[in-house]
Amino acid sequence: MARKKDPGGKIAAQNRRARYDYAITETVEAGLVLTGSEVKSLRAGKGNINEAYAGARDGEIYLLNAHISEYTQARGGGHEPLRPRKLLLKKREVAKLLGAVQREGMTLVPLKIYFNERGIAKAELGLGRGRKAHDRRERIKERDWQRQKQRLLRASVAVLAFLGIAQGTRAEPLTLRFATTNPPGTGVNREFYHPWAERLAGSSKGAIAIDVRDGANIASITNVYPRVMNDVFQIGVVLFRGVSGKFNFSEVSALPFISESSEVASVALWRLYNTGMLDKEYDEAIPLMLIGLPHSGLHMTRPLASLDDLAGAKIVTPSQLSSITVKKLGGTPLTLGSGETYEALQRGTAEGANLSWNAVQAFKLAEVTSWHLDASFSTASGMVFMARKTYNALPDAAKAAIDANSGEAATRAWSRWYDMDNDRGRQEAKASPKQTVVVPLASQIAKWRPIMESAIAEWASSRPGVDAVLARYRELVADVKAGR
What is the pLDDT of residues 226-262, one digit of tens each? Predict the structure, then answer.
């Protein structure tokens, strides 16, 4: 596949790190299916592809996780910032690219979006393999992982590795790298992920070791999924909103006013997964734990004049569902990542954020907010997961250890930690003389309920076929609440 000539048009978005993180061997130019509002936002320089990747959907190639900001002059913003966008390629190009990705383990990386000399938006894609030139230790461990995996696979077939028949010798443990996507020292890392990894390794009787990697510079919620699929990491933590278009039905556990706690939402989601209704979404990933995070209230830089109407207040919303909810309440959603929220509130670009108490603690938002509405408007959902192909290739002893430390019991423990941490953040705010926490009355919640049902209906309208899944999820929530 020949390198396409760069027409030298205006660059709208560029991933400058792509060639550092990947050894690009070929490039190809692709057309983009965009809405009018997306074209206008790109022309205004409002595109970001730093965390984007290209993936297959029904035999076509789509640009995923590319963030094109809402066009403020369009009605309702005009488009969903992170929606999947079809790439226009010839059939033989699609076949060759998908073959390289699926058979050779290569990655299709968006390098830039630009407007050519005719003013048409194009995407330049690079085909390459991930590399860590800036971190030689990472490359060494990647090489060691491959050697260990092949050694243990051969040994498991011969039943020698675990029997130790050669004078009682034992095989070296297989090291699995676990990307938490959180900064080092974060509460959930320190109090849950690291202890869980230690228990997992300990229960394997020497079959596996877990190398826990903290830090968003190593993996983030928007790139950890492809990195686990490509075997850069073997275990990861992802929020479903970070894998655009893949886990549409699984996001039911993020819906408002259905469950009151992370534990109830998460256990119901796990049971929903076990029904098989979500199998299409988990064709390449196997969840070890599932979660519906604690629900999000409003954290404001100023008091709201009325709880009935946000009166156009600019609210940071990290997901499509959050944006729908804020719009229904009369606010103006600003689609930003949680890590960008502090600066937006500090500068006055935003007046509040629709996030959980967990996020208020993690991102130190109490420094830039002072008025909090302790409600349950919407949340996010996600999982700790592995690639199915990686799990299936493991020796039986490793699989047994993973199975023993995953499932509904592990899901319940994970969600209980988040409920505990969420309440810890709530209590800290209530104890602070600088913070005001408002708990809505039952009468106010009754006013919000039809508004939230309207938000759920709008969310469902963008997911054909979700109605049966939603109905079953509601039933499972009722079962969990009843202790069944």
Answer: 999 988 899 999 999 888 889 999 999 999 999 989 9
Closest to 382 in 3D by CA, of 476, 274, 288, 296: 288
Alpha-carbon separation of residue 400 from 88, 129, 181, 220, 234 (angstroms): 44, 32, 25, 28, 16
Last residue of a domain, one of 130, 156, 190: 130
The verdict on residue 351 lying in a domain is yes
Closest CA to 249 of 224, 222, 269: 269
CA end-to-end span of the chain: 58
Residues paired with residue 334 on neighbouring β-strands, in sequence order: 316
CATH number at residue 106: 2.40.280.10
Number of independent structural domains in the chain: 2
161: three-class secondary structure by DSSP: coil
Q: Which helix (H) or strand (E) holds 265?
A: helix 262-274
Q: Closest Cα to residue 252, out of 79, 476, 102, 12?
A: 476
At 82-137, the pLDDT tens digits run 888 999 998 888 888 888 776 666 788 899 999 988 889 999 999 887 764 444 45
In angstroms, how far is CA 380 from the centroid of its own chain?
A: 9
- Is the domain of 193 the same as that of 275? yes
Instruction: Report the amino acid identity of residue 456.
Output: I
CATH number of domain containing 283: 3.40.190.170
The per-residue pLDDT for range 164-210, each reduced to its tens digit, is 444 444 568 899 999 998 888 888 999 999 999 999 999 998 899 99
Domain range for 247 is 173-484
